[in-house]
Design goal:
homohexamer, about 190 residues, alpha/beta, Macrophage Migration Inhibitory Factor, Nuclear Transport Factor 2, Chain: A, 2 domains, 5-stranded mixed sheet
Chain lengths: ~190, ~190, ~190, ~190, ~190, ~190
Amino acid sequence: MPIIETHVLEGYSDDEKARLSRALTDAALSVVPAKPDAITVMIHEMPRSHYMRGGTHRDPAPARPDAAATVRAYLAAMEARDLDTAKSMLGDGFVMNFPAAPGMSALEELIAWSKPRYAFVKKAYDKVEAFQQGETSVVYTIGTLFGEWLDGTAFDGIRFIDRFELRDGRIVRQDVWNDMAEVKAQA
Amino acid sequence: MPIIETHVLEGYSDDEKARLSRALTDAALSVVPAKPDAITVMIHEMPRSHYMRGGTHRDPAPARPDAAATVRAYLAAMEARDLDTAKSMLGDGFVMNFPAAPGMSALEELIAWSKPRYAFVKKAYDKVEAFQQGETSVVYTIGTLFGEWLDGTAFDGIRFIDRFELRDGRIVRQDVWNDMAEVKAQA
Amino acid sequence: MPIIETHVLEGYSDDEKARLSRALTDAALSVVPAKPDAITVMIHEMPRSHYMRGGTHRDPAPARPDAAATVRAYLAAMEARDLDTAKSMLGDGFVMNFPAAPGMSALEELIAWSKPRYAFVKKAYDKVEAFQQGETSVVYTIGTLFGEWLDGTAFDGIRFIDRFELRDGRIVRQDVWNDMAEVKAQA
Amino acid sequence: MPIIETHVLEGYSDDEKARLSRALTDAALSVVPAKPDAITVMIHEMPRSHYMRGGTHRDPAPARPDAAATVRAYLAAMEARDLDTAKSMLGDGFVMNFPAAPGMSALEELIAWSKPRYAFVKKAYDKVEAFQQGETSVVYTIGTLFGEWLDGTAFDGIRFIDRFELRDGRIVRQDVWNDMAEVKAQA
Amino acid sequence: MPIIETHVLEGYSDDEKARLSRALTDAALSVVPAKPDAITVMIHEMPRSHYMRGGTHRDPAPARPDAAATVRAYLAAMEARDLDTAKSMLGDGFVMNFPAAPGMSALEELIAWSKPRYAFVKKAYDKVEAFQQGETSVVYTIGTLFGEWLDGTAFDGIRFIDRFELRDGRIVRQDVWNDMAEVKAQA
Amino acid sequence: MPIIETHVLEGYSDDEKARLSRALTDAALSVVPAKPDAITVMIHEMPRSHYMRGGTHRDPAPARPDAAATVRAYLAAMEARDLDTAKSMLGDGFVMNFPAAPGMSALEELIAWSKPRYAFVKKAYDKVEAFQQGETSVVYTIGTLFGEWLDGTAFDGIRFIDRFELRDGRIVRQDVWNDMAEVKAQA
C-alpha cells in the first residue's frame, strides 16, 4: 500500500518510465510511512489509438530530460571552462546568485567575478537531489570545494550547496552558497 | 496524461490525501512535460475489509507528518529559544552542520557557538521545499537573515539556506549555509 | 464485452447516472455487435477530495438536463399555447424552420404563420430519440398530427418529424417536416 | 471528467476503436456538461487469452459496420439507380415510408411511385447523424433535394430528412419526409 | 504480484468478502509461486446504481453459504442422531457411498447399515478442506474415527476421509472411505 | 458479476494464464452464486519495466507446475514401476500413509508392503481434483482399483481415494484410502 497505477501514452523509454516510477514511489512515501517495498507502481501504456481526449487522439510529449543529469553536465562544462556547452543548457532569463555578489546573468560575468577570488575551484559531490514543483525542476548539488587560492595555496573541504531551477529542460536559475568566506575569515 | 490512480486504505485525512495527490502530480511532471492541468490523480480508498495481502487484512499506518510543517515549527521554536519544544522534534542521532563549525548534536552547543557571533538572528523565508527520498524526508528552507551584531548594529538581507533530513517524522540532520562571513568580510 | 468503467465525481443523481450508463451502453453497441446483456458499465464515484487535476480539486458540473424531457415539456407548452413557459426553454439565437416557410425566431411568428393553415394541431408521438454530438444535444420527435382544418373538418394520421438542437440545456433550433401539404394535395 | 476506460478484446481496427471512443465521448457529454476536452477515453485491449467468461475464452465479434457509411452507400446506389447494390444493403423485413404514400417494401415500388412525380431527384446533404439504440442503429440524413419536374423545369433547395434503421448492418426501415408537396402547392 | 481487483455489487458481509479474498489469494498461488504476502486482493464494491448490464441495473445474489460450515453442521447433527436437522441440509438427489456398501439416499438407510457394524462412531477432525468447481462446492473432512464395536470394546485412531458435494448450499453427495475393515482384518 | 482483474508480470504461458483464470473463476463462484457465465476474469500483463515495487523492478517467478499433472505423472510412473521417475517428483520429507500401514517414506517400502497383498493393482480414475492452500497444492485422485490377488484371481471396482500435498512442485505427502479390506472381508 499504496498501489499506484499510471496510464501513459506509448513513447517513453524504459529509463524514463523507471524515473517516473521511482518519482511516484517517493511521492507515495511522502505521506504513507510504509517500507519502500510496500509501494507498488504499475504503468499501463497505451498506443495512440487507445487514448482519446475531447474526441481526438493525442501524441505524447517527449519526456522532460533528467534534470539532475542536465545540471551535472552543466557543472562539468563550467569546470572545464567549456562555456559554449554550458550556455547551451541555459534557458531564457537565466540568473545566478553567488555569495554576497550582485545577480549575474552571463557566464562571463561569473568568470570575471571569480578571478580575484581564487585561481581555480572544483567540486567534490556528496549529493545531487532533484525534484519537481509544477513545471519547474529543482536540483540541489551538495559537496565540498577544493582548488587553489590566488597565492597558490591549496584548499579543500569547503562546504557548498548549489540550487538550480530548470524550465523545459534548461537551467534558468542558479543559487550558490558556500563556506569560502567563513574559511578565509578563520584562516 | 498521465492519469494516476492510487489505491489506499481508508484512514487518511483530506489534507493528507491532498498532500499525496500533489506529490504524485509533481512526480508525474518530473518526466511528462505536460501542463499541470493535464495531470489527473484519482484516489481509490478502501475500507480495511476490502484489502487483503497474504490472506490477511491490513491496517493503514498513520500518515507521515508534513515534513515542511515540522521544520517550520522547529525553526520557530529555535527563534523563540524554546529549546524543549525544539528538542521534542529531533530524532535519534541528530547532527547539525553550520558554516565552518564542528558538527554539533545538542541545541545548547549551537547556542554557545552563536553567542560570540551575533546578538540575535531571525529568518525571513522565501521558500520552503520538501520532498521524499525513500524513507527520508528532505526539507529546504531558503531566505534571508536579519538581526543584530554583537555591537548592536542591525543587519538584514543575508542569504541563507538550511537543509533538513527527517526520519519517522523527526529531524535527524540540519545543514546550514549562509553569507554571513562574506558579508562581514565585505563590511 | 466490452466492460466500461467510468470515473466521475460525486454529485450526480441515480437517474443521471442511469442515463449516463445507458448512453455508454448504446455507445458500445454502436461498434461492438454484442447482445446488450454482454455490455457492462461500472461507475466509480469519487468524492471531491479524491480527484485532483493540475494540483487542484475540482467540483462536478451539474448534470446536463435530459434533452428529451426538455423537448417534451416545450412541445406540451406550445400545444397549450403557454408561450411564456415555452420561451423559458429557448436559448440565445433560437431559430425554427417549418415546411417551405421562412426561418422564424419568435414563437409569435410561428403562431401567425400557422393561423391561415389550420384551426389547431396536436401531436401523437411514436418516438422521441435523443443523442449527443459534442456540446450539442439533438432530439427527434416522430409521430402523427391530428387537429382541425380552418373549415372545421378534422384530420389525423399526418406524419411529422421534428428535430431539435439544445445547447446548455436550452433549445436553439427546431426543424419541422410533415406531410400536411401532400395530404392536402391528395385531398 | 469523466474518465472512461473500456476493456475490449483484440480484433478491432484503429478506425473502429476511434468510432467507439467518439461514441463514448458523446455518451459522457450527454450527461456531464464538460468541455469535450475534459472527456478522456482509454481503451484497454486484451488478447483472447487474457479474457475469460464462465471459465472459457471468447472471440470478439467483428465490429458492426459504420451505419452512416452504409446509408450513404445505399443512397448513392439509389441515385445511380444501381438497384442490385442497393438491395444488397437491405435486411429482412425492409419497409419504406414516403410522404403520404403506402408503405413499400421493394425498391421497384418506389421507382414506380416516383415516376409520375418528378423526372429525377438528387440529394445535397447537410448532415448525416448516426446513433445506436440497443441493437438498432439509427441514421438521419438531412439536406435539400434538387432535380427536375416532369415538365423539365428544375427545382432545388427542397428540404428533406430521411431516417433509417439498421439491424446487423443492414437497412430494415426507411422513413422519408420532405417539402416537395408544400413547394408545389406554393408554386 | 499478482494484484487482483474484484468488482462486486454491495451486499456481501465482511465475512463473505474475506472468504472471497482468501479464495482469490489461493487461486493466484495455484499458478504464481510467490510468498502469500506478495498476493494482494482489492475489492471494489458498487452500489446497485453504479453497475449496469444490458442497460439494466442488477441485484446481487445472496452469497453462497460457507460449504465447510454446512458440512460440519451436518456431521454434528448426524453424530447427535438429529436426523431432521441433518436432512434439512440435503439437496435433491442426495446420494451416499460408504465402503463396499450399496449407494444409499436416505439417512435412515445409513443408520440401518451401520447398526450391525459398530455400537457408535465419532469423528476427530484433522482437516476440513473446501473448494469450488463451477457450481459445485466440494468439501473434504479428514481425521480419525473413535467409538465402540458391538462387543463393547473401544476403538480409535481409524483413519477416515469424507468427500461432499454441495449445490446451491445443500449437500447432494457424500462419499466415505475409512480403514475400519483393514483394522478389523488386522485385529 | 463479479469482474476480476489480475495484474501479472509477463512471462506466463497461455496455459498457465488459463489455469490462473479458471482458478480465479472458481474462487469467485465459492462466494458469489452466479452462473459461471457471469464471472469475468481479465488479465492485465505488464512487461518488467512497467512494474516496480520498492523502487526496483521485479522478475516474475516461473509458474508453479500444474499439481494435478504432476500427480498423474507420478502415479503413471508408479504403475509402470519406474521408481526413478517417480522419485524425481518427490520433495524433501515425503511421507506416505496407506490403510492401517505404518507411515512410509521410501517407495521401496511401499512395494515391499504391497507384495503380500496383491499381485498387481491399477487405477481407473473418476476424478482428479486440485486446489491450492497457501503454499501447499492439494490433489485428490478418486476412482476404482483393478488388478489381481496373489492367487491369480482378478478384482476390480474397488473404490479408492488418494490425497497428495505438493510444495514447490514436488509431492511431499500421499494419503491413501480404499475399500480393499472391506471387499476382502465381504468375499
